[in-house]
Amino acid sequence: MAVIPFRHVAALTAVALLAAGCGLSEEIERERNPERTADAAPEGGPTGGASGVPTAPGLGSRTPIPVEEETVPDAPTSSCPASGVRIEPGMVDAAMGLRAMSVTLTNCGKRAYRLNGYPGLSVLDEHREPLDVQILQGPKPVTQMDDPGPHPVTLKRGESAYTALVWRNTVTDTTTTAVSGTYLEVTPAKGARKATVTPQGRIDLGNTGRIGTTAWQKSPTSDAGAGRPTAPAPSTPPS
Which of 21, 161, 194, 207 is most solvent-facing, going by the fewest CB within 10 Å? Predict the structure, then answer.
């Protein structure tokens, strides 16, 4: 998988957070320090806990492609899978029980690539077997977060789009085994090829068993070599 310079990731993170309004940064800060005052300076950067940064199948797509599963290998930025798109996970940002992460899709093919709606997702264990996880189209009821909703997104060669994922690592029943995923299977649109990616941090769901996701939206910077955005951040108290 392509290694993206940190300075590029940081720049896109800042732009994505501004575009998301009050967003995930306020929620994460509130969960880290619930008693902070208006004069308290916010902490910077993600916690050091989980380092490493998807929704129901059936997304709209104007150009269906036969369903085929492929695993995204580690490769230089110049490489391009047979599907014509690179799918890459961002770092997992954590604050107490709340988790957030982005998944970026970059068009590296020769033709325009069209998206419309939410990605199809499946959380896999270390053996690449699917786990029982509910994928929500929209970040609620996990948390409050800006979601553009389904809308057409057309990517020219070199342009990118991203979706933000949120979940909570909460254990409410000690008699059940907490869910922790190792891989994500991503279907960009209905009929498109699937890609299996490895998040930069585990998908630790506790026993909440659900992930909320936003619809695909164009990345603030569409330069394929400029990195990928970090997920914008939720803004409600823990549920």
Answer: 21
Q: Pull the structure tokens for residue 166.
A: 């949120």
Crossing angle (nearest 10°) for helices 23-32 and 6-19: 100
Neighbouring-strand partners of residue 203 = 181
What was the pLDDT predicted at 172?
Answer: 82
The count of other CB atoms within 10 Å of the CB of residue 76 is: 8
Closest Cα partner for 24 from 108, 32, 198?
A: 32
- The rounded distance, in Å, linking the Cα atoms of 199 and 55 is 15
Of 199, 128, 178, 163, which is closest to residue 55 (Cα–Cα)? 163
Cα–Cα separations (whole angstroms), residue 68 to 56, 104, 229: 17, 19, 27
Cα(185)–Cα(196) distance, rounded to whole angstroms?
4
- Tokens representing 43 are 């902490």
| Structure confidence at residue 95 (pLDDT) | 76
Q: Where are the alpha helices (DSSP H) in 23-146?
A: 23-32
C-alpha distances out from residue 204 to 24, 75, 109, 133, 167, Å: 18, 27, 33, 11, 8
Per-residue pLDDT tens over the stretch 91-108:
888 877 899 999 999 999
- Comparing C-alpha atoms, which of 58, 63, 54 is closest to residue 107? 63
Break the chain into its structural domains and give their ranges: 6-34+52-75+83-226
pLDDT of residue 162: 97
Residues in the chain where the model's pLDDT stays below 70: 1-78, 222-239
In the three-class reduction of DSSP (H, G, I as helix; E, B as strand; rest coil), residue 170 is classed as strand
